[in-house]
Write a structure and sequence with these properties.
Low-confidence stretches: none
Mean pLDDT: 96
CATH architecture: 3-Layer(aba) Sandwich
Number of helices: 9
CATH superfamily: NAD(P)-binding Rossmann-like Domain
Shape: globular
CATH topology: Rossmann fold
CATH class: Alpha Beta
Strand content: 15-25%
Largest sheet: 6 strands, parallel
Length: about 290
């Protein structure tokens, strides 16, 4: 792996990925592209960039991530997450590049009670989930030997907005905070996912679907209490409530826990437990608010 092209390079995951590469003494040539340089809505431009840069690996961190807006702008979401990803996969096929594409837990309906396996049937119940599933199918269909789909969820990191930063801000602004306790998932540090993506890119891994989330599971309420604890605040100030109290246009999966069995095929361990990751991430997270 001599040349890596990163799309969505200015987003949360893209920023974390570039930081991982910058700290790696054996890092390949890195080709970072934000939306101003590579916009998935324009297939010809996507193809031109990939064929010009001739990367060995493309890591697609670009996406339409406005989950609620997708409910009323599904065509626009599909243009990025569906047909845009298809254009990227076609360009990678022509350039002889592998593609690692980031997807989401929203491709599932959230009705399970045990972790979703990588092979579990998909059934998105939101426009965002449908758009992301379209992208998955494009990658797996067009790049059967060199396409990788890595589903993640509940991301937080030093760049962008996320739940952890919101809770840090709310601790100093409110006496109590009501947080959803009926949605179960896996808080995942963007830096951990970035490191796992690089391991995958360097491994002799079978193509297909992998789940890039932290180990363990938690509700948003559990995560908020851990944030308050790390702040030295009373976690009792976090009060549990149901998701119905925060009704939003797009339905949220009640159960977003993903299984990690397929990492063994790549000779890799899954990402560490979410609580261990949050503790490791903490200095960088509170530093954003210092």
């Amino acid at each position: 792996m001599n040349r890596v092209l990163v799309t969505g390079a200015s987003g949360m995951l893209g920023t974390a990925l570039l930081a991982q590469l910058a700290s790696d003494p054996a890092a390949p040539d890195v080709l970072p592209y934000g939306r101003d340089g590579l916009d998935l809505r324009y297939p010809d431009g996507v193809r031109d960039v990939v064929l010009r840069e001739k990367p060995d690996v493309v890591v697609n961190c670009a996406a339409w991530t406005a989950v609620d807006d997708a409910e009323t702008h599904e065509v626009d979401a599909l243009a990025v997450n569906g047909s845009g990803v298809r254009a990227l996969a076609l360009a990678c096929a022509d350039a002889g590049a592998s593609l690692i594409h980031i997807s989401t837990d929203y491709v599932f309906d959230g009705t399970a009670h045990t972790p979703y396996a990588e092979t579990a049937p998909t059934r998105p119940v939101s426009a965002y989930g449908r758009s992301k599933l379209a992208g998955e199918r494009a990658v797996l269909g067009l790049l059967p030997e060199t396409g990788y789909v890595v589903r993640t969820a509940w991301l937080y990191g030093s760049a962008g907005r996320d739940f952890v930063k919101t809770m840090i801000s709310m601790e100093s602004a409110r006496a109590t905070v009501d947080v959803v306790d009926d949605q179960l998932g896996q808080p995942t540090w963007a830096a951990d996912l970035a490191a796992q993506l690089l391991r995958l890119a360097r491994a002799d891994a079978p193509p297909g679907v992998y789940h890039g989330t932290s180990s363990g599971e938690a509700t948003w309420y559990d995560l908020a209490r851990e944030v308050f604890t790390l702040l030295g605040a009373d976690p009792g100030r976090v009060r549990p409530t149901g998701g119905a109290a925060f009704a939003r246009p797009a339905p949220r999966p009640a159960y977003s826990v993903l299984g990690h069995d397929r990492w063994a095929a790549a000779g890799l361990s899954p990402i560490r437990h979410w609580r261990d990751a949050l503790h490791a991430a903490w200095p960088s997270m509170v530093g954003v608010h210092a």
